[in-house]
Amino acid sequence: MKYFVGIDIGGTNVEIGLSDNTGKILGKKSMKTESKKGAEDTFNRIWKKTQELAKDLEIDISEIEAIGMGIPGPVVENSIVKIAANFSWGNDFNAKELMERVSGKLVKVENDVKVISLGEALFGAGRGYKNSITIPIGTGIAAGIIVDGKIVNGAGGIAGEFGHIVIEKDGYNCGCGLKGCLETYCSATGIVREGKRRLSEDKSGRLYECIAGDLEKLEAKQIFDLAKSGDRLCNEIVDFFAEKLAQGIGVLLNLLNPEVIILCGGVAKAGDIIVERVKRFLPKYALGLTLDNLVFSFGELEEEAGIKGAIALVIEK
Fold first, then answer.
1. What Cα–Cα distance (Å) separates residue 160 from each residue in 99, 151, 211, 293?
2. Does residue 293 carry a pLDDT above 60?
3. What values do phi and psi take at 193, rounded to 5?
4. Which residues pair with 15 in a beta bridge?
5. Is 281 a residue whose pLDDT tops 80?
6. How far apart are CA 21 and CA 238, in angstroms?
7. Could you give the strand order of the β-sheet that contains 295-298, starting from the edge strand earlier in sequence?
8. I need a labelling partner for 55 at 20 to 30 A (CA). Which of 66, 171, 213, 313 fits?
């Protein structure tokens, strides 16, 4: 039996999973990233935790075939993290080389969003489709693009930075340095910003009562929940969000003509209220032919998406 390790490295935590050769997760462990201690320290602790997991599962380390790793930032050649934005490891960080040296195993590295999209394509909502786009919506928004069964990376690993499509010429400042990026409107942060803006003008509704007038307590979930119950202001905010998202998705549809759009992440948990409204606005932004037979789905892997996606990197040659 061959076994594979999937490692999902986040700014705060690292999730580690060990699977058999079908991709079934046999066990998981987590640990703090503590990137300030240095990459060598973090990667050594990851390998130590992996060895503990294998021992718990009574699997010999020699039976581990390969390790897949998902990490934030653009990655080239399944090796080098061009910009390690969430860590103190410097740019052009060769994560593959370090992990191979620490573990003695074959290692492949990929951007975390692309890893999630690959996981959904192989094990989740993208099964059966050759062309899929997975869009995680949380604090930010991005897109993992699969064309003809392969991840689209681009020349510098930047492909899929969906959140930085400029949709408003003189819109909000974005952390990337541009103005009016989709992410400033269609992330959880963007929805809350729009809610605060409207509440500052209208303090008479249920949303204002829900947060007891404290705008700092506003969360995206409150807006979606009240919209589902029929609240006028919250429905206006959701419509605003859905149209902006449709504008961005329309660009993807016209460029790539995918078979399925897979939504995941915290905001996607709002469910059909997002898809129904995006579908309503899409004809304004996408060619009609791209909408024929287009499927919308929600991610199936949830908290295992990063681990299973990392395993997907190495389980298929």
1. 25, 10, 35, 23
2. yes
3. -60, -45
4. 8, 30
5. yes
6. 42
7. 150-151, 144-147, 132-136, 260-264, 295-298
8. 313
Among positive and negative, which fits the CA dihedral 298, 141, 274, 290? Answer: negative
- pLDDT digit string, tens, across residues 72-121: 989 999 999 988 767 888 889 999 999 999 999 999 999 999 999 999 99
Between CA 259 and CA 39 the distance in angstroms is: 39
8 A C-beta contact, residue 309 and residue 4: no
Structure tokens at 79: 């090796």
Only one residue has tokens 């998902």, namely 70
Q: Which positions ≥6 away from 232 have C-beta within 8 Å?
A: 205
CB proximity list for 184: less than 8 A, separation 6 or greater: 171, 172, 173, 174, 190, 193
Q: Quote the CA–CA distance of 119 and 137 in Å, as a whole number.
A: 16
| CA atoms of 275 and 95, how far apart (whole Å) | 37
Phi–psi pair at 275, nearest 5 degrees: -60, -45
Quick one: what percent of the chain has pLDDT higher than 70? Answer: 99
Closest by Cα among 89, 96, 82, 79 to 34: 89
Q: To 10 degrees, the CA torsion angle through 207, 212, 214, 218?
A: -40
Residue type, 19: S
Would residue 202 be called left, alpha or beta, if left means φ above 0 and alpha means ψ between -120 and 50 degrees?
Answer: beta
C-alpha–C-alpha distance, residues 58 and 11, integer Å: 30
What pLDDT, in 10s, does the model give residues 143-179?
A: 999 999 999 999 888 899 999 999 999 999 998 899 9
- Element at 290 (helix H, strand E): helix 288-291
How many angstroms separate the CA atoms of 144 and 297, rounded?
14
Radius of gyration of the chain (CA): 21
Q: How many helices (H) and strands (E) does the chain have?
A: 11, 13
